Amino acid sequence: MLEGRSLIEPGDFSIEEMDGLFNLAKRIEEDRVYLRESCRGRLLATLFFEPSTRTRLSFEAAMLRLGGSCLGFAEPGSSSVSKGESLADTVRTVACYADLMVMRNPKEGAALLASRYAEVPVINAGDGGHHHPTQTLTDLLTIKRLRERKGEAGLKDVVRGLTVGFCGDLKFGRTVHSLTKALTRCEDLRLIFISPGELRVPGYITALLDTQGIPYQETSSLEEAMPSLDVLYMTRVQRERFFNEEDYIRLKDTYVLTRDKMETAKRELIILHPLPRVNEIAAELDTDPRAAYFKQAKYGMFVRMALISSILGVAHA
């Protein structure tokens, strides 16, 4: 049961609970009138202290499609935080008005702090370079939906035997950290981390993989890794995480996925990207049947509909 619970990091929900969410998301996708008015009279507060397009709008679209309403702000300058109000006071206040709160904040641990002060459930929509659990749900649902034709059932069945590659900014990429952490609870898979030395995946992630006995490889060559990949998770180099503009400029074009680089890729490769894309995936690949990043954005709305309705207790995942 997810009713009344917060989602701060990928480990908050069990594999079985995530499977329930994925099944509910599939039903919502296939039956557009199912749960259509289930959240009427409920309010979702979106507190975005960092810019966002997909995450904020997909949460708002999800709530509106469930018949609920939304309130909130899209940047801190339009809130009392700009006057010096503490995060604790902000979430206490917003909790007086809303039934559920979604928050993005540039500081690691902010969502956990908010959940300790808010009297309503809190969903972490990204806290600095730490976690982004609803993007992880989106990523896993996308992989599951695109492989279901092979007959796999639960998440563990879907990812069994996969080689998943993460490419780009693996140091600051919270989507990479969250998805990797979720995958550590599965079995019989292999991970390849593709990045320049300055943007390597953090040590706490590789230490977790070592503890779980999950094989992984670190390389700087996308071309070398490409033939073995079943899933390629591209990420942008995040300008906002750099303290030095020169370092960003030097590293931002390290990896650009083009049609030429796809020549050695598997025919059933799944290309994912949490978006926004800058130039790390050439537009010429958008029509490639292996490009799933816009499907991924759509699945994100369905899984957030499943999540909202489950936390508010109007459906059971």
Structural description of this entry:
The chain has 317 residues and is α/β, with parallel strands linked by helices. Helix content is 36%, strand content 14%. The mean pLDDT is 90. The chain has helices at residues 15-30, 54-65, 87-95, 110-117, 133-147, 155-159, 174-183, 203-212, 222-225, 245-251, 293-311; strands at 43-48, 69-73, 100-105, 122-127, 163-167, 190-194, 216-219, 231-234, 270-272. It is built from eleven helices and nine strands. The strands form two sheets. Strands 7-6-5-8-9 form a five-stranded parallel beta sheet. A four-stranded parallel beta sheet has the order 2-1-3-4, sandwiched between helices. The protein has two domains: 10-131 and 298-311, Rossmann fold (3-Layer(aba) Sandwich), CATH 3.40.50.1370; 133-297, Aspartate/ornithine carbamoyltransferase (Rossmann fold, 3-Layer(aba) Sandwich), CATH 3.40.50.1370.
Q: Runs with pLDDT <50, length 5+? A: none
- Write the CATH fold name of the largest domain: Rossmann fold
**CATH homologous superfamily placement of the largest domain:** Aspartate/ornithine carbamoyltransferase
Spatially, the strands of the biggest sheet line up as 7-6-5-8-9
Shape: globular
